[in-house]
Every structure is written in structure tokens, then in C-alpha cells.
């Protein structure tokens, strides 16, 4: 646990994670990523849904500076271990969450913030939220963020975000497929809790079956999806008759 991120198990079987560096735009630090990863690796077996939100005006304005100081000598392997692998491992942890993952987005979601929102099963954004992949403004190739987004949005949309570096509003982000729900800023909290509350009322077996299908089905053939659908439905439903 760290003061930079708050992680709490709610009484309604929701794991709530709040980014807590509002003065720094909730820019993600290695300590924050490690704390979130650790919390997700010991997920309570009764948890139905994970909610990630942020304190302050912005969801997450990017990643806290990870580049070595000017003049530092480093090999490509050194840079991979220090810069690339930690955030790629963090994205993998978010992807492999066994239960639905909801984000509540207000303000700016840049770089890693944009990736976290897109990796959610349901991203709920205020209509005033803005999404951007600005790395090329600093002559950085944003392949780490691109890896997170590549199977979430079409190629043309990904190229548009990365190459133009333009910020898009919530309505356009929904059209691109980055997020799922857009509401008025004043309704953001209530709408997020409505969605989270619905999931919290389901059984563990049901939410895990749905999440497993969402994670697996895109990579399988029609025949495999048919069998997967039948198997997961049967297993989840059988819990009612134990």
C-alpha cells in the first residue's frame, strides 16, 4: 500500500482502486503500478468487479518520468528492463483480471491513462474527459501504449491517435472504441456506481464466466467459441444447483 494509490475491498464485493496523486495529474509511478499489481494478484475470491478511478480533476495524465538522466550510459536491455517491461507487465495484469474491470474517467487520460481506460471492460467517462497519446511530441515511440490499444480499436483509429497526437473528447473516444459509456460530468459517479452495483449483484461464477469469454473468444475460431460458450454457461449455471 502507498499513499499514491488507495486500494480497498468494499462490503459489496467490489475492489476499489483510486489513483491519488491529484497535484501531479495522477501520473502513474512505478510504486503505484506495483501496488495495483500486488492488490490484483491477491484478489479476494468473492470479488465481483474491480473499479479504478482517480482523485482530483484528471484520471491519469501519463506515466511519471522513467527515462534515465541525460548522459546516462545504458544498453537496450537495460532500457527494456527499466522502461518497457514494467509497464507492459502492468498492462498484462489489467488484461488478465479474472473479473470485470470498470474505470471512471474524468479530465485527462493521456498515455498510460488512455491505455488503462481502454483496457477496462466498461470505461465510464464524463463528457468533458479528454483522451490523448502525446508521446511523439517528445520524440518517444509510444509502442507500449499502442500494444495496449492494438486489439481495442481499429488500426486507423490507433494511427490517428498516435501520429496526430490530438486529444479527442469523450464522444469521439466512444466512437473510436476507446471507452464504452459517456455521461454528463455531474452524473459520472452515479452512473459508475449503477454499473458496478449491477455487477456486484451477480454471482462470482457468472461474472468470471463472462470475463473469461470476453478475454478468450476473440482469439478462437467459431467452432471453438461455440464449445467455449456452452462450457462456460454450463459451469456458471451449475453453481445454482450445487
Automatic annotation (TrEMBL):
InterPro entries: ClpP/crotonase-like_dom_sf (IPR029045), Enoyl-CoA_hydra/iso (IPR001753), Enoyl-CoA_Hydratase/Isomerase (IPR051683). One of its GO terms (molecular function) is catalytic activity. SUPFAM superfamilies: ClpP/crotonase (SSF52096). Signal peptide: none annotated. It holds the Pfam family ECH_1. Belongs to the enoyl-CoA hydratase/isomerase family. This is Enoyl-CoA hydratase/isomerase family protein. It comes from Oryzicola mucosus.
